[in-house]
Please model this.
Amino acid sequence: MWNMWMKTAMLGFEAQQVIWLRTLRMMKGGAIAEREARRMVSEKAIAAAEIGMHMLTRPSADAAVNAAVTKVRSKVRRNARRLTRKG
Model:
């Protein structure tokens, strides 16, 4: 239980970083901001579908939540790395 709580808390912290980085990117405007906004919306739709599949295919609610949080955290960390690269 503690491990799941920590994973969820870390997801919250990491997601806040990505929100901040995306906000900065979108404040610049232009094509980069439009591309980031489209990416953000499409990621949410894909994540919702994936989480639904986790809920249907896992043997328990705990297993489904654990799998979903793990997957979402990896995507959030990839976004953070992409948004902090120079270029």
